[in-house]
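User: quick one, sequence for these tokens?
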């Protein structure tokens, strides 16, 4: 279909654009800065995201799948309870004794349909409510990652001051600026982790 073709084209274009941007980044960024970004900061980001969302995804998508498997039937696909009268199967109504019997049969069928739909709606609402717990969980983990990063930066700052070989003022200032850049980069990584966790309920809804 046209929608599938457009989605495939956009996915390929996004991957190609990401590849070229990565190559430009590799050409203009030093190896030391690239190593700091690719190893400790990416590890910090991936750890906070994995711990904060994978448990919700596995549990809630399994719950949705179980509900779909348990409620699939001919009647559920057509919007009713799947039960048909013998007369409906043969093309006519066997309730020939009067309109009251047909009306009562229709009312019973509607009641059975509602009784089956209500537990499914309640289960879906529970899944939605639990999925929103991923947002505060992601916020807490992002905060813990931020505190870990800041503590590591402070330890590196103290180690650089205690180093007896670091007597050059220019070298000391260069290390200070590099450490400040690394600290700001870590803060941005933790902030991006929190922003990505905000979309997790919608992602779970779409899975």
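Assistant:
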């Amino acid at each position: 279909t046209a929608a599938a073709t457009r989605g495939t084209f956009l996915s390929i274009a996004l991957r190609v654009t990401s590849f070229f941007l990565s190559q430009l980044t590799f050409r203009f960024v030093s190896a030391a800065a690239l190593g700091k970004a690719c190893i400790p900061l990416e590890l910090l980001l991936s750890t906070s995201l994995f711990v904060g969302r994978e448990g919700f995804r596995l549990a809630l998508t399994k719950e949705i799948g179980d509900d779909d498997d348990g409620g699939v039937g001919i009647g559920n696909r057509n919007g009713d309870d799947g039960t048909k009268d013998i007369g409906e199967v043969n093309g006519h109504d066997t309730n020939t004794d009067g309109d009251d019997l047909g009306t009562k049969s229709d009312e019973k069928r509607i009641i059975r349909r509602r009784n089956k739909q209500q537990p499914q709606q309640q289960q879906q609402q529970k899944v939605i409510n639990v999925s929103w717990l991923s947002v505060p969980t992601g916020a807490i983990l992002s905060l813990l990652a931020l505190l870990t990063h800041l503590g590591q930066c402070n330890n590196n700052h103290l180690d650089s001051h205690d180093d007896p070989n670091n007597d050059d003022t220019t070298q000391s200032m260069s290390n200070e600026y590099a450490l400040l850049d690394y600290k700001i980069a870590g803060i941005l990584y933790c902030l991006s982790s929190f922003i990505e966790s905000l979309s997790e309920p919608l992602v779970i809804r779409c899975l």
